[in-house]
Amino acid sequence: MTELATPPVEExxxxxxxxxxxxxxxxxxxxxxxxxVYNPATGRQTGALDLxxxxxxxxxxxxxxxxxxxxxxxxxxxxxxxxxxIRELVHARREEVAKILTxxxxxxxxxxMGEVTRGLEVIEFCCGLPTLLKxxxxxxxxxxxxxxxxxxxxxxxxxxxPFNFPVMVPMWMxxxxxxxxxxxxxxxxxxxxxxxxxxxxxxxxxxxxDGVFNVVHGDxxxxxxxxxxxxxxxxxxxxxxxxxxxxxxxxxxxxxRCQALGGAKNHMIVLPDxxxxxxxxxxxxxxxxxxxxxxxxxxxxxxxxxVAEPLIDAIKERIPKxxxxxxxxxxxxxxxxxxxxxxxxxxxxxxxxxxxxxxxxVDGRDGAPEDGFFLKxxxxxxxKPGMKAYEDEIFxxxxxxxxxGTYEEAVRLVNDNPYGNGxxxxxxxxxxARQFQFDVQAGMVGINVPIPVPVAYYSFGGWKASLFGDRHxxxxxxxxxxxxxxxxxxRWPDPATSSVDLGFPQTR
Length: 508
Ligand code: NAD
Prior knowledge:
Radius of gyration: 25 Å
Strand content: 15-25%
Distance between the termini: 62 Å
Bound molecules: nicotinamide-adenine-dinucleotide
Helix content: 25-40%
Largest sheet: 7 strands, mixed
Number of helices: 16
Shape: globular
CATH topology of the largest domain: Aldehyde Dehydrogenase, Chain A, domain 1
C-alpha cells in the first residue's frame, strides 16, 4: 500500500480520489477498482472511491488489533476527556461536514445539520462513559467473600453503514465502541464516503491514538473480508434487509457478535378524531423529508374511517408548497435522490401504481428538475397489500394511503407487515394511543410524533425484518453490545482461618 499525505485532486476532471484511512493516515488503494461518487444535485461525478482488497481489509484489522491493548488500558478519565474534545470539535465544525453530506447525499443543508446534531447526541452520551461502565458489587456474598461484575471491551469491532446517514449512523457505532475500549474498522457506504474520512481526521485532531479508528472503503469484497476475518470480534450493520440478513447470518456463523439493522415500511395511523392539519403536516414532513430516504420515513398513511377525505385533501394542498432543489440552496426543503439508478427505481413505483389498482393523485415525475437525480413528492391513494408500492420499501418521496374502516384493521396491517421499524398513531384519544402502544409490533412507536427516533440515552432498533440480533443500537444496549461481562468472586482471608475443604463452595 502507498501512503498519501492527502488524496490528490485530478485537476483535469475535477474528480477527487477518496482513499482508505488506516493507522492514522490516508492509504491509497491498490486494487485498481474504483467506484464513482456523484453530486446528486448536478448529476456530475465528483469522486473516485478506492475499493479495498481482502489484504487492505486485513491491514486495517491488524492495525486496529495492534492498537487495542494500549487503547483498552487508557483510563476512563482520559477517554472521557477525549470524548469531550471530540464533542467540541464536531460541534464547532458541524456545518463543514453538513456541506459534505449535502454534496454527496443530496439532502438539504438544514437536514444535514440535523443529522450531525443527532449524531452529536450519541457522542455526548458517551462523554458519560465512566458512569456507563460502572458495575455491581456485592459485599459479603458469603462469609469474607465479595462478588462483583466488570464489563470489558471485545477487541476489534467493525461497522458497515448505509448511504442515507453517512455521518450519524457511523457515530451510532464508533462512539460507543471506542468509548468502551474497542478499536474500530468502518466500512462506509460507497455512495457518500467522504464524511467518514472527515470523521477520521477529526478524531485524530481530537487526540485519538492512531489505529483506534480506521476506514476501509469498498463493496461486497470488503464486507465479506470483514465478515470472514478471525480478528473481528463483532459487527454492527445498518442497511437494507436482504444484506442485513446476510451479514447477520455470516457474522454469527463465524462466531462473531452481530447486530444488523434492516429496512422498513413505516405506517402512520390516523384515527377519525385526529387533528387533520397536524396529521397532514406530520405526514408531509415525514414522507418527503430527505426525499424519503430515511429508514424512519413515513411511507404509508393508514386513514381510519371518514378521516381519509379531509386528510388526503390536506396532504394534497401541502405538496405543491414543498420546495425541491439543490440542497445547498437555503430555500430548498427537499433535495435529489442519491443516484440516478435509485431515482429511476423510485419513479417506476409511481409509474406502475395505477395499473395495480392504486390512484396516483400527485405524480412526482412531473416538473422535476432536469439536472441531477430529482423527483418531486408523489401521493398514491388506495395502496393495498399485494401491490408493489405497498410490499416494497420504496425509499423515496412516495407516500401511499391505505383506507381502512376500523382501528383493528389498521393495527392488523402494521402487524402483518414483515418490517417492524417505526410506526405512529395520530389521535386525541389517550386510551386509543395507549392500546396502540400495547398492540403494535414495532420497535419504535410515535404518539402524535411521526419520526420517533429515540434520544441518545435510549436505544434504537426495530422488530421483525428490521433488525437481526438481540441488541438495539446506541444508548444502554449499545454499551452492552460493545462489552462483555466478567464476574469476579474474591476472598482476602485471614490466613489463620484457612483450611482444606473438599466440599462444594457454599454461600451460607
Ligand atoms: P445497502 O444494504 O445497499 O448497503 C448497506 C451497506 O452494505 C453498504 O456499506 C454497502 O456497501 C453494503 N452492501 C451492499 N450490498 C452488499 C452485498 N451484496 N454484500 C455485502 N455488502 C453489501 O443499503 P443502502 O442502500 O446503503 O441504505 C438504505 C437501506 O438502509 C434502506 O433499506 C434503509 O431502510 C436502511 N436503513 C436502515 C436503518 C435502520 O436503522 N434500520 C437506518 C438507515 C438505513
